[in-house]
Amino acid sequence: MIALIRCIKSDFYKLGHTSIPWIHLLIPLAGALIFLLYYHTTSKNSITDIEGYLEVLAIAFPLLIGLISGIVIEKEEQAGGFQVMLCTSKSKCTMYLSKLILLLLLGTFSIALAVGVFALGFHVLPYLFYLKAGVALIIGNIFLYILHVFISIQFGKGASTGLGVAGSLISALMLTGLGDYIWYFVPWAWSVRFCHRMFEKLNSPAFSAEIVLDIQKGLFVMLFAICIAFAISLFWFKKWEGRKSYE
To answer: Which residues cross the membrane (predicted)?
Structure first.
């Protein structure tokens, strides 16, 4: 545990002189302020406006996850062709976990900032609702971070970014009728669908029990997938010896 904490601190220090911390600060802050300005000048402070903002946030994150994961792993590659990660055999999984936790912490900060600033400026619903929505966005992205760390290490930043673009498109598509019956099994749909179902529960109290069961089904599938993906990724990285170009 101490070694892991040291690795995370080291990774944060490495990123301190890059644009990545600023990206996680400025993009969510700018997004929240732009939506607040737009809503305060054109809308009637409706619940639909909040739903629209959170869904846009959920749709944008797959792309951001793909891009940021690719950049972080690319910097590790540029520092010596993954030699730091590969040569520390006693703590190989620790190095992998450090990168994953770093990305999850940065993503959590961005979501908290984006939702928190918007909640302060658009206090139509209780803060508890915004908190639940923020948690839904965070846990809905965990699988994507695991996936994109793998893609970035194995195939590079281009592949991770390309998958991120496709993921955002899939996420938007899952809001249509096409996603009604398959969203449980589509990782890019989890965040946006959890938020969507929360608003359906709010707007349709008569169907509350049915919606809660639907959310619980999605949560079960998602948590199961996260556990399996995490275990497989650890096993894979422990055996990984570098890309073919380095062998």
So the answer is: 21-40, 52-73, 100-122, 128-151, 163-184, 218-237
Digit-by-digit pLDDT tens for the chain (247 residues) are 788 888 888 888 888 788 899 999 999 999 999 999 999 888 777 889 999 999 999 999 999 999 999 999 988 777 666 766 666 555 778 888 999 999 999 999 999 999 999 999 998 899 999 999 999 999 999 999 999 999 999 999 999 999 999 999 999 999 998 888 899 999 999 999 999 999 999 888 888 899 999 999 999 999 999 999 999 999 998 888 766 544 4
In angstroms, the CA 54 to CA 111 distance is 10
Nearest to 104 by CA among 17, 11, 205: 11
Residue 116 CB: number of other CB atoms within 10 A? 16
Tokens of 126: 């209780």
Q: What are the structural domain ranges in the chain?
A: 2-242
3 state DSSP class of 17: coil
- Please give the model's pTM, rounded to 2 decimal places: 0.92
Shortest CA distance to 155 belongs to which of 70, 230, 240, 96?
70
What's the CA angle centered on 183, arms 166 and 189, to 5 degrees? 40
Helix (H) or strand (E) holding 34: helix 20-42
Report the amino acid identity of residue 215: I
User: How far is the C-alpha of 153 from the C-alpha of 67, rounded, in Å?
Assistant: 13
Opening angle at CA 32, ends 212 and 12, nearest 5:
90
Angle at 99 between CA 83 and CA 24, to 5 degrees: 130
CA separation, residue 142 to residues 12, 36, 41 (Å)? 19, 27, 35
CA distance 241 to 47: 51
